[in-house]
Amino acid sequence: MKTEKTSRTAQYMAFFRALETKRNENDRLFSDPYAAHFVDSKLRFAVGLSKFPFVAQYIHNIINKKIPGALSSGIARTKYIDELLKKAVSEGIKQVVILGAGFDTRAVRLDFLKTIPIIEIDHPNTSNFKAEIYKKRIGKIPKNVTFLQIDFNRQNLDQLALENNLDFSKPTAVIWEGVTNYLTEEAVKSTFSFISKFAANSHIIFTYVHKNILKNPDSFLGGKKLLEDLEKLEEHWTFGFFPEELPNYLNDFNIRLLEDLGADEYRKKFLPSRSEKGYEFYRTAVGVKRD
Question: Which stretches of the chain score pLDDT less than 70?
Answer without folding.
Answer: 1-7, 152-153
